[in-house]
Specification:
about 15% strand, Arc Repressor Mutant, subunit A, 4 helices, alpha+beta
């Protein structure tokens, strides 16, 4: 059975939405994601602009400004709720890990 669209978020999706807590344009997001994650996560420009279009269509972000080719976006209430659900899902996974491994090293 295929995964429902946007039921869970990829790292790139999660961090893109996280960046849009404040108004930002695409280049800002491309710079901020690796800064937030210490370089662990990056988003390519093709992926980013595909995600932005998808998030716009779904109503998770809205366009705030257009200056030539530069477009700025911000999270909507629906986007903030999606991000919160994903945060809670990830937190539950981390709690399950701690419950079953109790911080012990896996051998």
């Amino acid at each position: 059975m295929p995964r429902a669209k946007l039921q869970t978020l990829t790292e790139q999706m999660f961090y893109t939405l996280l960046c849009l807590r404040e108004e930002r344009c695409g280049i800002d997001i491309l710079d901020l994601v690796p800064a937030i994650t210490g370089g662990e996560v990056t988003v390519g420009s093709g992926t980013l602009y595909t995600l932005l279009d998808q998030f716009l269509t779904e109503g998770y972000i809205r366009e705030t400004r257009v200056e030539g080719r530069r477009r700025s976006y911000i999270l909507t209430k629906a986007g903030a709720e999606l991000l919160e659900r994903e945060y809670k899902r990830l937190t539950r996974q981390a709690e399950d890990y701690r419950k079953y491994f109790g911080g012990e090293e896996i051998k």
